[in-house]
Amino acid sequence: MGTSTQATLTATNMQSFEQNTQILLKDELLNQTIDLRQQPVYSFNYTQGNNEHRFNLLVGGTIGIENPVTANEKLWFDHQSLNIALPMMAGQKARVELYSATGAMLLSKEITLDAVNTIPVKFEGTLVARVITNGKLFTVKGLIQPSIRL
Q1: CB of 16 within 8 A of CB of 36?
Q2: pLDDT along the chain (150 residues), means of 10
Q3: Nearest in space to 140 (alpha carbons), one of 83, 57, 80
Q4: Domains and CATH numbers, the chain
Q5: Is the distance from CB of 111 to CB of 94 less than 8 angstroms?
């Protein structure tokens, strides 16, 4: 059994990026995505032997977004997950729907929105995601490919 310790990552100098540039930290171990603009300090437990590729830093725009409502409202696919960033609607209920390229519904679930929600996607190929909340509809198309580790 490995030794465990509390660790903290702190994002600084955020003003050096354009104001509408999204900066996210993805914790692959806990399957959480943190918006570093809203939460610049992230504390976590590190255990010796944890995956050395535990974190991904995502900076900039997203691929596959069509007609985003504002810079703060975004949906995107990342590896094997759907990410939903609707911080202005945090705390509200939403329906998330996932469709194949042929229009078959693959997933339909109710969630409570956080600043950023991450939903694991166990499907491959071209997908369309819809998020419906408070009378608003958000959509994104993306391509999920199998993960390849070298």
Answers
A1: no
A2: 82 80 82 84 88 79 42 76 89 94 92 92 89 88 68
A3: 83
A4: 4-144 (2.60.40.3080)
A5: yes
